[in-house]
Design goal:
single chain; 90 residues; mainly alpha; 64% helix; extended
Length: 90
């Protein structure tokens, strides 16, 4: 049987979780967009209504600029080209 973990490990874990929670709280409580290219919930409303009213909804709906751009690039470029663009953006 293994002994219970030492207290210092629990303190480190609690500190790390608190740090991450602080960052998330700051991001979510910020006025305006939380990250680049984020849109308010209203931006999705039109798409949701379209989906609900459709007899045969599409499998994907693009809302933000990056989703439209990569949807377009996915159609015209080979997979390796799209992978290269994503990798170079990181």
């Amino acid at each position: 049987m293994l002994p219970p973990p030492a207290q210092p490990q629990q303190d480190v874990l609690s500190e790390m979780i608190g740090e991450v929670m602080g960052i998330m709280e700051a991001r979510l409580s910020k006025e305006g967009p939380a990250a680049p290219f984020t849109l308010p919930a209203d931006a999705v409303t039109g798409k949701v209504i379209k989906i609900l009213e459709s007899d045969k909804p599409d499998p994907r709906y693009f809302v933000t600029f990056p989703t439209h751009l990569f949807g377009f690039l996915k159609r015209i470029l080979p997979t390796r080209g799209v992978d290269w663009i994503i990798k170079s953006a990181e």
